[in-house]
Amino acid sequence: MAGLRNRVIAVALRALAALPLPVNHAVGATLGWLAWVARTRMARVARVNVNLCFPENACGWRRRVARRSLMEMGKALTEAPWLWRAGPERLRRLAGYPALCDPGGARPEGQALFLVAPHLGSWEFAGLHAASYGPMTSLYSPVRILEIDRWIRTARASTGASLAPATRQGLRQLQAARDRGEMIGLLPDQSPRRATGVFAPFFGQPALTMTLLPRLLRGRNDRVVFAFAERLPYGRGFRYHELEAGPEIADPDPVTAAAEINRLVEALVRQCPEQYNWAYKRFRPPPPGTPDPYRR
């Protein structure tokens, strides 16, 4: 039964890859809208998160952002197979890198470029697109459906990405890429294991935050750019927004560094809140002794 299900999913993804991007996005937006009107768990989590992070905004604004974020997450789902099949040249035609975040730009020898992309806009496009400009190593969690996992690995490798598992071996791969002065891609806004994270404010709420990035930066002069690829309407492509991190990102105090990570992510999210993945339980686990905001 699982084998049949996996084959059906693979066929559906290949069909989505064949659609023109505007049609693909329309399908994704419809799926997200259906998830909203059906009052799914994703819709409830999105409402909780937006209410927590924007209490100062009107109720109607918060509902609209939560609904549109599900529609954008639908697009993220359907566009992924399209992007995996697009190839480096086609991806480059969909967006250009501004000077601040140009992976192909000249850097001092041995200086790595950390591209830190939150779950905002099209993070799949950002990773594939950046890797087309030079060697890039990114953390990767394997997909359980083997055929899809192979497809993702092949697509990312085709644009120059090297995937590092979220293990000690993967950490060594990241360190080696850093020491060679290459690009490193990281997602900063997933809750890590408690042993590898600290609590820091995110939109005024305590969020368990990664310490991997500050540890990789310690004692070095690498460049760190937080960026996201905004999804333009009607499949017209993507537009980058970016912020360059300051020295606080490598502060020896892990809480100070984590707070800077969250500050930069928050600044990007405020530019395009409807394209953030609000359906993710970012504030779980809560700090000890505080209530779980997602528990009914």
What is the molecular shape? globular
Q: What share of residues is helical?
A: 40-55%
Cα radius of gyration in angstroms: 19 Å
Give the strand order of the largest sheet, numbering strands 1, 2, ... along the chain: 3-2-4-1-7-8
Instruction: Give the topology string: H per helix, E per strand.
Output: HHHHHEHEHEHEEEHEEH
Characterize the biggest β-sheet: 6 strands, mixed
N-end to C-end Cα span: 34 Å
Structural class: alpha/beta
Describe this structure as you would to a colleague.
By secondary structure, this protein is of the alpha/beta class. The protein has one domain (2-275). It is 47% helix and 16% strand. The protein has helices at 2-18, 21-37, 41-53, 59-86, 88-94, 123-131, 146-158, 168-179, 212-217, 254-271, and strands spanning 113-116, 136-140, 161-165, 183-186, 197-202, 205-210, 223-231, 238-244. The strands form two sheets. The protein has a six-stranded mixed sheet, with helices on both faces. β5 (197-202) and β6 form a beta hairpin. α3 (41-53) packs across α4 (59-86). The longest helix is centred in the N-terminal third of the chain and has 28 residues, at 59-86. The protein is globular.
Provide the fold topology.
Blueprint: H1 2-18, H2 21-37, H3 41-53, H4 59-86, H5 88-94, E1 113-116, H6 123-131, E2 136-140, H7 146-158, E3 161-165, H8 168-179, E4 183-186, E5 197-202, E6 205-210, H9 212-217, E7 223-231, E8 238-244, H10 254-271
Parallel strand pairs: 1-4, 1-7, 2-3, 2-4
Antiparallel strand pairs: 5-6, 7-8
